[in-house]
Amino acid sequence: MNRAPRLLLFSLAVLCLTLLPRGESIVRARPQSAAAVWPAAIDPQVIRDQDDMTWDDYAPIPGTTWNDPTRVATVKTIKLAIVCADFPDYPFVMTRPKKSDLYGNPLIDPVKREDIPKFYLDFWTKPQEINKGHTIHEYWMEQSRGKIGVAVTAFGPYQMPGKSYQYGFAGGMNGDGKVSMPEGEEVNPRMTQDLDTMWAADAGADVKAKFDLVLRLYAGYDESAVWQEFGEMKFQTRDDIPAEWGNPDPAKPRWAKTRYVPWTSWNAASWLWSNSAIITGEGSGAIRHEVSHAAFRIGDNYNNPYIEPYRRVASGPWDLMDRGSFNGPGGPHKRYTVPKLEGDAMSAGLMLRQRVAWEFVTPEQVLSLTRSELARSGVVVADVTARAIDPEPGFLSGIVVRLDGDAPQDRTPVEDPVQNPLSSGVPNYNFYTVEVVQRMGYDSYEPDNGVLLAKNKDQASSVGGPNGFSVFNWVIDAHPEDIKKLDFKRPDGTPVMRTIADYRQLNDALFHAGTNSGSAYEWTDAPNRLQFYVVNVQRDARGVLSYTLAARSLDGAGPQTRGVALSGPASGQVAANASASAVFLLKNTGPALAIAADADAHAARITMFAGSDVYRLSVTVEGDGWSAALRNELAAVRAGSTQPVEVFVRRAATSAASATVTIKAVSESDPAKVATMIYKVR
Questions:
Q1: Is the pLDDT higher at 293 or at 404?
Q2: Three-state DSSP class for 2?
Q3: pTM for this predicted structure
């Protein structure tokens, strides 16, 4: 029958990954080239680099008002005290004339010293133009879906008995800080004790007991936000540091050791490093990250990306407990601004591991099963919505697959991270999580939309030393190759590229649906006998993104009888030097899976998600000058159901008069089940 092929009215979005040879210990995803633009991608990867982001990148979450200060948390309101203090040698940055200090701050008109506590109270809690309407109460309400909020009381101002650098060089981030002290002066490790003593004398001996958490906000900067920007980025060598950035003792070096590298300017090194105590400077946006340490008893999840041997960060921009705490307009090199208008002003959301552990998602919102259960049930398929929003009925917040069985549960081959900077370290992970990230709410400052896949540990612990490896989230990178992006230029113009361990190497880590996306669309962990897919991408009427995800055991396909069939037009026409498409129907001919009579609620729920099969699709063409392609190379279809598959065909002006297109569908669960169809074009 010679008729023009019908246009597809809707697209089947599928996520497939190209696999490395099976000889690899872990089969890593290899994406197709984004340069191949035909047919157009259904889910193109679009990376928004941190340095390029502005406040215009913020996208509100539909139907939410988490920044409403009158909204009360349903489970717990964290009572947080902010205790403000300056130093005899260093007043609050916000009391100085606009842009007058060494760091170019403050960025707005000054505030009287006596008004500093109220200024920071309002800045962190009151939606206003200065903070673009964003508060710490909003952050925790958004992440917890209204379960956890923050109520803040501010105290001070107090003046510390010691100088700023006496406390800073005692903080442990500069090696032996004593060597950087001016002659005749000593370090003072009593920052917390000195401030708390003044606070108690002013507000009462029992004041600390009235709060869940205490944030000690000191005048000045956080060393973590200035050591690089006002060290190697500003000065070519340590000998080029001028006196105003150096030790007040002219006989001492103008540089000092810092946490990650051998030197920075003495002034940059002199500040405390924000920590879980909670102690932080005016120039730090780490308040959300530090609250997490104290409120949820969780450690950091990052390594040192600046020192060799390099070790890749664990979750990078995708989680608050890693460098996602740096997210915000302007990128990580703008973290020193006062007040916090750039840099780490909009911390990342929380990965699924944390949201499950802290009960921010309910058990009903997550499909949780073990590796052995997956082998018994066969492939499971679920629709998962963006993590910034509660799932609508029929959708989930993610999938969890636990690595059960005989020890060791994590069967990843041992690999020395010193030899391979991309190694995930000691293979002692406990489970996989799969979730969806969309750039909205606090996730507006993530670099991409897509599917986030990670290995996780049950035990959260802090990193073990300057380049330790005790992480508890490990993002699977769809693009493990070097991203090859500029980090900064040295004062003489020499470009410095981001190290292979830089957290922004994970900017392109997300998986995307379909062919030609520029990313990968499947992940196989052969040692752990697991395979993950994404099968469909969609946005609802509100613009909320969701994907259909699938997980399969390589050791068991379930009890189902599998089957597949293809039907559709037998022939079509394509104009010279043009392209067209035809729609075929893919049917899962296997019988529906019944819930066992003796199944408990958990087993019955798994069975509900195991009612589909995943099919691998391919298309070939015979005929000079003709080509054929798919926008999707996987499909997931429920037993007894049918799904459209669109095939694209094009021909050059000098092509043969006709061609034969072969469409093939193979069951991933039972590769012996194959359907093939011939389509003639002219």
A1: 404
A2: coil
A3: 0.92
